[in-house]
Amino acid sequence: MAAAGPGQLNLDESPSWGSRGVDCFEKLEQIGEGTYGQVFMAKETGTKEIVALKKIRMDNEREGFPITAIREIKILKKLHHQNVINLKEIVTSPGPERDEQGKQIDGNKYKGGIYMVFEYMDHDLTGLSDRPGMRFTIPQIKCYMRQLLTGLHYCHINQVLHRDIKGSNLLIDNHGILKLADFGLARSFSNDHNAHLTNRVITLWYRPPELLLGSTQYGPAVDMWSVGCIFAELLFGKPILPGKNEPEQLTKIFELCGTPDELSWPGVTKMPWYNNFKPSRSIKRRVKEKFVSLPVCYYSFDRHALDLLERMLTLDPSQRISAKDALDAEYFWTDPPPADPQTLPKYESSHEFQTKKRRQQQRQADEVAKRQKTQHQPHARLPPIQQSGQLHSQIRPGQPMNTSHHSMAAGPSHNYGKPRGPGGPNRYPQGGNQGGGYPNRGGQGGGYSSGPYSQQGRGPPPYPGGGMGGTGGPRGGGSGSGYGVGPNYQQGGPYGASGPGRGPNYSQQGGSRSQQQYGNWQ
Ligand SMILES: Nc1ncnc2c1ncn2[C@@H]1O[C@H](COP(=O)(O)OP(=O)(O)OP(=O)(O)O)[C@@H](O)[C@H]1O
């Protein structure tokens, strides 16, 4: 495993990097729990500036500073764009880490913690969209999508693949600005695509078919598949491809996008795992059909949205639309235009971690109320006990802080864990998770890069309500095909016992994206 010298980062030209202690910051509250460790909202004691501190988890790193953190720091140091999170500095904690009881924590040979200091962002997309009653408008969705594509285009022209695009890694502030974050799986690429890269990246639900079929030579198109999944999710109201494991993920993709053949995807039959996952019968692509006639959806996908989605969810990566071309798509240039970020509603801070915690508390309160009710039932003459749902209905955290926008319907359902790459937490489905849990994860912008978001004439249209779910709906789960098109698992797929962090059966997704999990991933 690659490692930096103990206690040394040596990553910077700037002398202040790594030289300040974390005691320059007052920790305010925990806002994230990632594979790396915790993320805190903190205040710089001198300037009072609010920042996010991401603690680099060292406990599993016996051989040095974690390569994931080195990559993230190196890459972020070279990326500077309005739609990419700004890494401000690295700080260290001087002494040995202590737990809440003041006991020294073992296993950290650096005798202190290392933190990345980021600009603070009020929300992540998952946390925001999971707020009860949250409904994004079409101009809001266009605004977020355009910023996502602008940030990603900037990464791609700077030869960086993000490799973990998902809602919880898209941060949004109360000025409506969206930034790409979490570059822990990112890496530089060269345009010749000759290097071999690991295919065990990208959270399962957002992972493209070429990686699921074993490709190790890939490029920016992998991120564009994930963007397509996010785009559809924003309009559809829930994740569109919630596979429980890799084979099921591929099945879901084929059911939606059709089965590939040499005509639609030249070279597909030569892909490393094609024979393992060869569909038993051919299926027609039905992206348009699925999203045009939705029984339960908040927005209908208009013609331009469907066209763009089709081009993002193209099976053959060489034919998939690039970020640059997506920014030119009719969708962004037809009414209603993308909202100006400044005009978007401001919300109370909503990170996936917090919305998850709130939901857990609500669940616990519901259980207590249920228990009390059961205990009291035999005493028929006692007054009925108030249900926790009544309390819930009074608290409407999904409401924007300003009320100038559209009213919001109430809606439950935060998903708290998040599924990651080959194993990991989950907002999405991972076996037995109660409707939540995430899937596992295992030059400049040609006129787009950092400019302001111009309104495109033709005054604001009336915005119908709608947006990303929040109805607690069927997140996660969803099994099998019902089409009988599953891959040929019998032949012993590549996802069997061989993969690090994966159990012998397909439903295993535990783990993290640490070295242990990915081995020598590139
Ligand atoms: N700069 C920031 N401002 C506000 N919140 C942040 C910031 N960076 C991260 N967070 C919150 O912390 C969460 C986890 O952060 P991040 O994804 O960077 O950590 P991670 O350890 O890599 O997590 P994961 O393994 O889930 O990707 C984010 O989803 C977000 O809610």
TrEMBL record:
Residues 432-449, 465-485, 493-502 have a biased composition (Gly residues). One of its GO terms (biological process) is positive regulation of transcription elongation by RNA polymerase II. PROSITE patterns: PROTEIN_KINASE_ATP, PROTEIN_KINASE_DOM, PROTEIN_KINASE_ST. Residues 415-431, 503-522 have a biased composition (Low complexity). The keyword Transmembrane helix does not apply. ATP binds at K54. Keywords: ATP-binding, Kinase, Nucleotide-binding, Phosphoprotein, Serine/threonine-protein kinase, Transferase. CDD domains: STKc_CDK9_like. Coiled coil: none annotated. SMART domains: S_TKc (SM00220). Residues 332-522 are annotated as: Disordered. GO terms for molecular function: ATP binding; cyclin-dependent protein serine/threonine kinase activity; RNA polymerase II CTD heptapeptide repeat kinase activity. Residues 25-332 form the Protein kinase domain. It catalyses: L-threonyl-[protein] + ATP = O-phospho-L-threonyl-[protein] + ADP + H(+); [DNA-directed RNA polymerase] + ATP = phospho-[DNA-directed RNA polymerase] + ADP + H(+); L-seryl-[protein] + ATP = O-phospho-L-seryl-[protein] + ADP + H(+). InterPro entries: CDK, Kinase-like_dom_sf, Prot_kinase_dom, Protein_kinase_ATP_BS, Ser/Thr_kinase_AS. GO terms for cellular component: cyclin-dependent protein kinase holoenzyme complex; nucleus. It comes from the Eukaryota. Belongs to the protein kinase superfamily. CMGC Ser/Thr protein kinase family. CDC2/CDKX subfamily. This is Cyclin-dependent kinase C-1. It comes from Dichanthelium oligosanthes. The lineage of its organism: Eukaryota, Viridiplantae, Streptophyta, Embryophyta, Tracheophyta.
